[in-house]
Amino acid sequence: MTESERQVEAALFAAEGPMSEAEIVEVIGGPVREALHGLAARYQGHGIELVERGGRWHFQTAPDLAYLLRREKSEPRKLGRAAIETLAIIAYHEPVSRAEIEAIRGVTVAKGTVDTLLEAGWVRPAGRREGPGRPLLFATTPGFLTHFGLASRRDLPGIEDLRAAGLLDPVDLALEEALGAAPKEDDDADM
C-alpha cells in the first residue's frame, strides 16, 4: 500500500460522511485519483468496500454482508402530556395507585396512558395496597432510572431545581406566592 493510499484511507475513515475527490485533496494535499482506485481495488471482496456514489467516496459494508448488520428499528414514540404527568407522579410518589394519580392530576387517567408507560419499561406493577378494593400500585423501574440518567430516585430534581431551570408553570408560582407560601430562609441567617 502506498503512502498516498494510506493517507486517503485515513481521511475517509475519519470523515463524518462521504467525501469528494476535491475534499480529500484539501485534507491530504496532493493528487488522490490513483490512490482512490487502488484502494477500491484492494478492498474489493472484503467485508467493507470503498465505493464512489455521486462523485463522493466512502466505505460501506459489502452488499452480500449487509443482512448481518440490519437491525429492526423501532420508532420512538413521543409521550403525551398525560403520560409525562403520570410518569412524574409515579416517580415522585411511588408506590402509587391509579386513584391517587387521578387525585393529584385532577383528571381520570386513561388505561392507555399507564399501558404506554408499562410498554416503555419505565413503570411496573408494585403490588396492591391493603384496603378497600386492594388497588394496584405502580412504581418506576431500573429502566426508568437508566433512560433518564439517574442513579436512584433521590437524584430526581427537587422543587428548587425545577424553579431554577424555569420548568415550573408561572401560574403555579403566582398561586404559591398568593397563598402565602413561606419564603425561603436566607442561608446566611444561621451563621
Automatic annotation (TrEMBL):
The keyword Cell cycle applies. Coiled coil: none annotated. The keyword Lipid metabolism does not apply. SUPFAM superfamilies: Winged helix' DNA-binding domain (SSF46785). InterPro entries: ScpB_csome_segregation (IPR005234), WH-like_DNA-bd_sf (IPR036388), WH_DNA-bd_sf (IPR036390). It comes from the Bacteria. Keywords: Cell cycle, Cell division, Chromosome partition, Cytoplasm. NCBIfam families: SMC-Scp complex subunit ScpB. This is SMC-Scp complex subunit ScpB. It comes from Sphingomonas naphthae.
